[in-house]
């Protein structure tokens, strides 16, 4: 699949300047995948990767729309994709109520910068606005929940990385990594382990959260230096209290499946001033 002439050069430059956790991820491809999903011809991940399933979905859609089946996502295909087929990011200001290719592109960029807004659906709703505000505050921009040129430009910078290193919270291989999964963003690493396995502090820190959180279940969060924090979710037991200082390697809780979990595993996140970042590069 190739992109046609509708992609304006400024947008192309932004996309190229925004490498993601999944190297090679392109927000334009993600927006295309969101539009193809809405058309019922694509059920794969919204991962921004231009793979064979995405190309096949483009051709299926073109055949169904009685377009030339060439796999090229040009103006005719974008138009036929309907409200989610256009316009490109940066061609208009975005705020609550907007819907389109640009909103899907925005949601994908926000997620890879560590500010997920729920599902990738191309609809600018309250969750997207909340994510925009959190990103604006993080980036030192005017926090107005609207996306104009300054916010779009800031989103094109590379994602943050952890300023400190960590030890693994469990000494087992992780299964799911940081990146898009289905039509959502997975903001951490998953470590499957038997129910009750001790979960260890990845670094010395202070407990800021030791409670149940919607989706995350029983959760512990630790504050470290330089704005870094770690989060440990789906626990079956919490062994620490808010305000407590814990040493690296100290047990914080036990593996469980509380919250939105299908089986016992630890969901582990690293955040930098609130932005979720890929934990893998920070393991020493
Ligand atoms: Zn997870």
Structure, explained:
The chain is an alpha+beta fold. The protein folds into two domains: 2-155, Muramoyl-pentapeptide Carboxypeptidase, domain 1, CATH 1.10.101; 179-282, Glucose Permease (Domain IIA), CATH 2.70.70.10. Helices cover 25% and strands 22% of the residues. The chain contains seven helices and 13 strands. The chain has helices at residues 9-16, 27-38, 52-64, 75-80, 101-112, 126-139, 149-155; strands spanning 2-3, 72-73, 179-181, 184-186, 189-192, 198-200, 205-213, 217-223, 228-238, 245-246, 251-255, 265-272, 275-277. The strands form three sheets. Strands 5, 6, 7, 8, 9, 10, 11, 12 and 13 form a nine-stranded antiparallel sheet that branches. Strands 1-2 form a two-stranded parallel ribbon. α2 packs across α5. The longest helix has 14 residues, at 126-139. The protein is globular. Mean pLDDT is 92; it is low at 1-20. Bound molecules: zinc ion. Zinc ion is lined by residues 176, 186, 188, 190, 267.
């Amino acid at each position: 699949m190739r992109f046609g002439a509708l992609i304006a050069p400024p947008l192309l430059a932004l996309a190229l300047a925004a490498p993601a956790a999944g190297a090679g991820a392109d927000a334009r491809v993600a927006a295309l995948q969101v539009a193809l999903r809405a058309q019922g011809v694509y059920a794969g991940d919204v991962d921004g990767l231009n793979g064979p399933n995405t190309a096949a979905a483009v051709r299926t859609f073109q055949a169904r729309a009685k377009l030339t089946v060439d796999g090229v996502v040009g103006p005719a295909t974008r138009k036929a994709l309907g409200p989610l087929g256009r316009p490109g990011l940066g061609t208009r200001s975005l705020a609550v109520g907007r819907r389109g290719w640009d909103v899907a592109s925005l949601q994908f960029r926000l997620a890879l910068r560590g500010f997920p807004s729920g599902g990738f659906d191309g609809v600018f709703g309250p969750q997207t606005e909340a994510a925009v505000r959190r990103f604006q505050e993080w980036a030192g921009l005017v926090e107005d929940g609207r996306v104009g040129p300054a916010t779009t430009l800031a989103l094109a910078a590379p994602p943050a990385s952890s300023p400190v290193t960590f030890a693994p919270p469990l000494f087992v291989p992780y299964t799911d990594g940081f990146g898009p999964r289905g039509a959502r963003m997975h903001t951490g690493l998953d470590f499957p382990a038997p129910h009750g396995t001790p979960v260890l502090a990845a670094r010395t820190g202070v407990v800021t959260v030791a409670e149940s959180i919607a989706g995350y279940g029983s959760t512990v969060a630790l504050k470290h230096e330089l704005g870094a924090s770690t989060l440990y979710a789906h626990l079956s037991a919490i062994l620490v209290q808010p305000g407590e200082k814990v040493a690296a390697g100290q047990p914080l809780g036990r593996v469980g499946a509380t919250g939105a979990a299908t089986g016992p595993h630890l969901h582990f996140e690293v955040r930098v001033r609130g932005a979720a970042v890929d934990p893998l590069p920070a393991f020493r």
